[in-house]
Amino acid sequence: MALDPEELVTLTNHGSMRLRSAVARAMTLPLDERKRATIVRNGKPATLRYERIKDLAAEWAKELVHSA
Questions:
Q1: Within 13 A of 49's CA, how many CA atoms are on the CB side?
Q2: Beta partners for 8?
Q3: 39 near 47, Cβ under 8 Å?
Q4: Which residue of 24, 30, 34, 59 has the fewest C-beta atoms within 10 A of its own C-beta?
Q5: What pLDDT is stored for residue 2 in this prediction?
Q6: In this structure, are residues 39 and 48 in contact, taking their beta carbons and an 8 Å threshold?
Q7: What is the reported pTM?
Q8: How far apart are CA 41 and CA 16, in angstroms?
Q9: What gap in Å lies between CA 39 and CA 12, rounded to an integer?
Q10: Could you tell me which of 2, 7, 6 has the C-alpha nearest to residue 42?
Q11: Considering just the CA atoms, what is the radius of gyration of the chain in Å?
């Protein structure tokens, strides 16, 4: 399932932002906080936990490399 990187979401304890920004910010958190990171969205799935956030970061990084 493709998620829109421009979707407005909430990164728990960090506020509202675009999904791409929330993923990037979550991946820069200290490891303890990163593993507890949760992104809340209006669509399904309603919450994205660390493993899915990590997967999105890798997927989008790979897309950047291929488009360059």
A1: 3
A2: 18
A3: yes
A4: 30
A5: 82
A6: yes
A7: 0.90
A8: 10
A9: 6
A10: 7
A11: 11
Average pLDDT, the chain: 93
pLDDT digit string, tens, across residues 22-37: 999 999 999 999 999 9
**Contact indicator for 9, 39 with CB cutoff of 8 Å:** yes
Q: Write out the chain in H/E/C secondary structure.
A: CCCCCCCEEEECCCEEEEHHHHHHHHHHCCHHHHHHCEEECCCCCCEEEHHHHHHHHHHHHHHHHHHC
CA distances from 43 to 28, 33, 51, 65, 68 (A): 24, 24, 18, 28, 30
Both tokens of 9, joined, read 């979401």
Phi, psi dihedral angles at 54 (to 5 degrees): -60, -45
